[in-house]
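Notes from the 1:1 (GR / supervisor)

We went over the backlog. Supervisor wanted to see one worked example end to end before approving the batch request, so GR pasted a single chain during the call. The sequence is below; no edits were made to it. Supervisor asked that the structure be written out right there so they could see what the output format looks like.
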Amino acid sequence: MHSPRLKALAAAVLLLPATAQAEVFEVIHPDVGKGGIEFEILNALVLEDVDPGDEQSIHEFAIGYGITSFWKTTLAVEFATIDGDGFEYEAFEWENVFLFPLGNGGNDHDHDHGDGDTVALEALGFYAALEVPDDGGFDAGAVVLGPVFEAALGPVDTIGNIFVEIPFEGGENEAIVYAISAAVPVTDMVAIGVEAFGEVENAFTSGTASEHFVGPAAYFDFDIGGGRSLEPRIAVLFGTESAQPDATLSFNVELKF
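Structure output shown during the call:
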């Protein structure tokens, strides 16, 4: 947003560029468990040729820890493969999720996708992140702030993020960034759904521009014993604007324990 992301850099969080290059895509989940550790690898590959100097793929490596039952903090680094230049360090991120005592609280949430009839808010939290890109350092960085939520809409599990991205430079260049997923279970270990990501640049001034990605996704949840779970996710996301990649393969893997 990861560069959706900010993510995504990612992310995590999501910055959408003006040229067709790779972006990391992640919907931030409002799930926090005290003492829980998460390792995550986020990957995105543009399924077309990119111009020399643009990003063909993005890879983010993150580790998160549940400091309390309502606060999870994550540190992440992002790398990119640049067409013609090889593998390069891109950015550092510090992300935090603060959970509100609503719904199921989001703590060790089992993602049961509702009972077929329920419409309920499952979890609500607040996201705060700092991104420091390699190009430009701290002065070229940004903070990202906003709510994260999870809701059961019958059998559909919906997770949404709506963030304001505030750069340290650039005057009134704030952007609104969103990420949404909606999924239904196929088995106890597999769910399928759709995701959408986007950014509205200069959201509070004139000259607004927007870019969006949308596409199908599949989610997996494997219990590997010892209180650990492995959660891969794969999606194909299609850009809606001519400057965006026509299609991006997004593949994330998360290990929780």
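Supervisor's comment: Residues 6 and 58 are 12 Å apart (CA to CA).
Batch request approved.
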